[in-house]
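Hey, resending since the last one bounced:
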Amino acid sequence: MLTGFNPPALQIPAGYKWIYDVCPHRYSFSVLVATVFGDCSDAQLADISLSSANASSLDLSNYPLGCRIVQNAPASVGEIPVKLYVDQVFGVKHEQIGEYVGFFIVILLAFRALTALVMRFVNHQQR
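The structure tokens again:
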């Protein structure tokens, strides 16, 4: 629930936003999605929007996956490239991959330090 699937990441209520921010799955998901679907340059997006405005067809087979148009999307979404859809629904940006990796590593190290601390001082054995 807290990786941005339901509700979408940008529509999570403010009271639950902190849970969304500390969830490590969010950052690993963001790195994966940004790497695969977020790679589309501004020039390529401009070419796509220009061809759709002129109602001409553009061969997208040589473009990255992020430049492809979302197929069978609801009418409310319209015809947008995958990169923009991922940005609008999940809040994932290709330019922030380094931040996502950094946050993921920091959260993992914090959990490991907390686990080591608890294992050191909490003892449930009877003596």
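The two ends are 42 Å apart (CA to CA).

Sorry for the duplicate.
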